[in-house]
Amino acid sequence: MSWSLVVHGGSGVIDRADLSAEQDVAYRASLAAASEAGAAVLRAGRSAVDAVETAVRVLEDDPLFNAGRGAVFTADGCVELDAAIMCGQTLAAGAVAAVTRTRNPISLARAVEERSPHVLLVGSGADAFAAAEGFEQVDPSYFFVERRWRALEKQLKREGLAVPPRPAGSVADENLGALAHDEGKRGTVGVVARDVNANVAAGTSTGGTTAKRWGRVGDSPLIGAGTYASNASAAVSGTGEGEYFIRLGVAHRICALVEFQGMGLQAAADRVVQEDLTKLGGQGGAICVAPDGQMAWSFNTSGMYRARIAEGQALAVGIYKDDP
Ligand code: ASP
């Protein structure tokens, strides 16, 4: 049995003209590094869930992406992180929303799945669970990236809102995440994998949307909306305007078309993203993998950071619509 893995680093306004040559190279290198980290886990015969967690952690630690370090800021100038992980073999799932101190929210989501009787923990309760479970807790300034702060200032001005004070202890290090691109308020990371035992898994991690307010939570940590996995159909991770993904149940909808209508994976992803999501007025994309090894991605934005790799197939990395 062979393995396969697909990665995304967010969708949005990502045109060739927007990215400098250095940014282009940096994003491709980061996507390749995360893919290779996940592929190494699968090559070693370990589970799809392990591969998803490993690859998402690489992207969370990378300040280029809106997840973990490099996450976007809320209107209050805080970082509130969301993540979910799901195993297609057992339908076990774990998720966290609005956590503020956990370095790797995807691992915390996995702990919710494995070490709590619940699926979704939020806010201060999720932070307390993380501390009790011994997860690495960091000062909120760890997540700080200057370019994301500038994006917040820009967005708040656009909305006529006051700019809050910078987070205590934050350092305006122009080099950290200097190549991070503002995809228009958003971004997210996600990984789907199929292991040598033909089990699939999905994971998604995000800072949500720039200048979000009132405890806003997007689709990423909601099982069925931004993240879903079932060996009966596929594993899916989404990225885009969460409010639309929630209303359509995008990840589960793609899986349902595969399971109940017998659609091929690419056709199902295209149907939901290009037709249903577009018709509703939402923007974004999804990556998918099926237990039989099919891989797919689909997005209706100008770009989506993405990569795919499978046993016997070379790594392919893309950013813009016309990348292969
Ligand atoms: N889906 C994410 C959210 O709405 C954002 C993104 O993927 O760009 O929180």
Sum up the structure in keywords.
eight-stranded mixed β-sheet, binds aspartic acid, 324 residues, Glutamine Phosphoribosylpyrophosphate, subunit 1, domain 1, alpha+beta, four-stranded antiparallel β-sheet
Explain what you see:
The chain is of the alpha+beta class and 324 residues long. It has one domain (4-320): 4-Layer Sandwich (Glutamine Phosphoribosylpyrophosphate, subunit 1, domain 1), CATH 3.60.20.30. The protein is 33% helix and 23% strand. Strands 4-3-2-6-5-1-11-12 form an eight-stranded mixed β-sheet. Strands 7-8-9-10 form a four-stranded antiparallel β-sheet. The chain is globular, with a radius of gyration of 18 Å. Aspartic acid is lined by residues 10, 186-188, 206, 208-209, 218-220, 226, 239-240, 242.
Mind telling me which CATH architecture this is?
4-Layer Sandwich
Percent of residues in beta strands?
15-25%
Mean pLDDT over the full residue set: 95
- Name the CATH homologous superfamily: (Glycosyl)asparaginase
How would the global form be characterised? globular
Summarize the helix and strand pattern as letters: EHHEEHEHHEEEEHHHEEEE
> Fraction of residues in helices?
25-40%
Identify low-pLDDT runs.
Answer: none
Amino-to-carboxy terminus distance:
26 Å
Cofactors and ligands: aspartic acid
Structural class, from helix and strand content? alpha+beta
Strand count, sense and barrel status of the largest sheet are: 8 strands, mixed
CATH class category name = Alpha Beta
DSSP helix count? 8
What Rg is obtained from the alpha carbons, in whole angstroms? 18 Å
- Quickly count the domains: 1
